[in-house]
Amino acid sequence: MIFMTPLHWIVVAVFSVLFFMLVILSSSEKNTKTLISMIFSSFLLVVVGTAFSLFALDKYTKEAKLLSSSQIRDHSSESVIIRGKIKNIGKFKIGYCNVEVRMINPRKRGGKISYFTPSKSLSFGSKGAKGSVVEEEFLAVKNIEPKKSKNFKIVMDFPPHFSNPEYKLKLFCH
To answer: Residue 110: which region, alpha, beta or left (left: phi > 0; alpha: psi -120 to 50)?
Structure first.
């Protein structure tokens, strides 16, 4: 569920008024089958328009920035601990932020590090093949007020065949 700002409520109100105006306009129709189809199509139009508008508003009103991050490998539990700080740089409260962690194990080929590995087109269930990319998404923080920041901690399993991986973090806030 998204955290509703005043702009979200304005959009819902505008589309509700639009729906009632379309219902009033279509009520002049005498044929009941046509009337029902007009009301149903008005409802679908308003629901789709509201959904797209809310998602667009959510993208532009919920702005956050990943200020810092560090990774520490815990050898006792074969995991990596990722710590960081997320700041709300927008004007509205953010309900939650997810961090997508992408761990890339570079492969060495002839002394050079290669991030590209050619794949076989028909390698169904190839046993013994170890992936060089691990991607997971975690809930990092909840309820960040405007212009405030919060610390987060993520514990992620560390694949035993990885050595000196590269970490890429992406932030998704709603």
So the answer is: left
| pLDDT of amino acid 129 | 54
Contact 106, 156 (CB under 8 A): no
- Return the ∠ at Cα 53 (arms to 25 and 43), rounded to 5°: 30
DSSP structure string for the chain: -PPPPHHHHHHHHHHHHHHHHHHHHHTT---HHHHHHHHHHHHHHHHHHHHHHHHHHHHHH--EEEEEEEEEEETTTTEEEEEEEEEE-SSS-EEEEEEEEEEE-PEEETTEEE------TT-TT-TT---SEEEEEEEEEEEEPTT-EEEEEEEEE--TT--S-EEEEEEEE-
Contacts (Cβ under 8 Å, ≥6 apart) of 131: 159
Q: Identify the band that residue 10 occupies on the pLDDT scale cut at 50, 70 and 90.
A: very high
Domain ranges (residues) in the chain? 6-61, 64-116+129-173
pTM: 0.71
Average pLDDT over residues 148-170: 92
CATH architecture of 64-116+129-173: Sandwich (2.60)
